[in-house]
Amino acid sequence: MSNGKWATIIYLLILVIFLLAGGSSALGQDVQEIIRAIDGQQKKIQTLSAGFSQRKESSLTKAPLFSWGAVKFKRPDRIHFAYSKPERMEVALEGKTLWIYYPGRSQAEKYSFAGNRKMTQYLEPITGIFQKTFLQLTETYSLTYQGKESNGLDRFRLHPKEEKVAKFLSRVDLWIDRASGAILRFEMIEAGKDRLFLEFKDLQINTPLKDEDLTIRIPPSARVREQISP
Questions:
Q1: What domains, with CATH codes, occur in the chain?
Q2: pTM (whole model) above 0.90
């Protein structure tokens, strides 16, 4: 898998915790109170599912790359992305194991991070996000409230404080729906100015999900490449 596609997959793993960071804010509240409200809502969420559209702008391509699909999350550490366009692809994170399956090619890839110190260090800023509340994120990210936009969404901006994160991540912008407390938009800007923008629709919270609902069903005929790290 190319470095660009791998980076996109890794960055996608970040978005789910922001999806979980649902909360509402009221006029006159300061940022800390807004964050506490977000954390209060986050603790209630055990599962979520949503449709998404993705736009990737890269210096390596002349035009943006568009993708569509669905995402599911189940605490504590199961995530499943199903891309429908432009190519069918499934991505599943199960603890420290990442599966990627291309049905049209009958190929799959398995990446194990357990025991790989170098990869664990690279992923720590990302996987750590899944384990922290929004309030705890302010320990490693500078957060600013950008205000309420004309579309009715509240906008937040995160800048990494740690140099090792800032080397590949410039900032993350979040758009929160005040009525539902859900994050409906997500934009990540890499240090190299590449952008990843996602918009979510039909968000469903705490609907019943079993582990097998987030597991990729790879047929025996598919070729599986197993690697320690990308």
A1: 3-227 (2.50.20.10)
A2: no
